[in-house]
Design a protein that fits this description.
Layout: E1 6-9, H1 11-15, H2 24-35, E2 39-42, H3 48-57, E3 64-66, E4 71-74, E5 79-83, H4 88-100, E6 104-109, E7 112-116, H5 119-130, E8 140-142, H6 146-149, E9 154-160, H7 164-175, E10 180-186, E11 189-194, H8 199-210, E12 217-221, H9 227-230, E13 235-238, H10 244-247, E14 252-253, H11 261-270
Parallel strand pairs: 1-2, 1-12, 7-8, 12-13, 13-14
Antiparallel strand pairs: 3-4, 4-5, 6-7, 6-9, 9-11, 10-11
Length: 273
Amino acid sequence: MSRFQAIALDMDGTLLTRDHKISSATRAALAQARAHGIKVLLVTGRHFMTARPFHHELALDTPLICSNGAYLYDPAQGRILAGDPLAVAPLTALLAEVQAQQMGALFHLDGGIGYLGCEEHVGRMRRWSANQPDHLKVSLLPAEDIDSWLQKPIWKLELFNQDPGLLHRFVGEVVQRLPFTQDWAAPYAVELVQLGCSKGNRLAQWAAREGIAMEKVVAFGDNNNDISMFEQVGLAVAMGNAAPQIQAHADRVTADHNEDGIALALQRWVLPA
């Protein structure tokens, strides 16, 4: 019998291969873990609409932790169970600057993903969504009336600029003083959630509700936003493709996400012999 009761999985760079698939070996290992009574949970920076197809593929019965821990979403009920949206007053001030300085932005909304600019990124999502069944498609919403979006929860804001220097300067001059948590997804992209929101904190909230001690949770990840999970779980596993500074926060390092790193780690350190 395994000493672990739950497995928390980052998606991009971890669960998914470079072509955004789940390998057959990973699927089999996760099914084996579930057969031993271990819960499997997706913990992602993605909006629930872009995470949901993979939850469906794995036939999971757990909720999704999305938008870097901003909320917990139940696909079975089609609703957010708990969450903390971005504070409206500082967000309103930030968006005025975003528009004035022509930054690209993605908005994680209840009803879909809003966008301001970001045409290339949105185009990729649109093409990917077109291949999904109707009930798993993504709603992509152009920023025609941002004021109306501010009347409802905005869970996460992603800021983009093709010039990383401009974006870093914008963050330093405008974003830094606001009460938001920052995660750099790439040199040209920064993600903002409400202060106190993180993958690790939302995972701990879910585990407490399930009666699972965090020392009995395994977490897999590859990026900055996974460190908050690594700091709280019983076994933190970094992917082989993670940068050295991410691997330094983990208890173990497994193979690359394109080389069945999750499956190998589960067989080696988690599943009963």
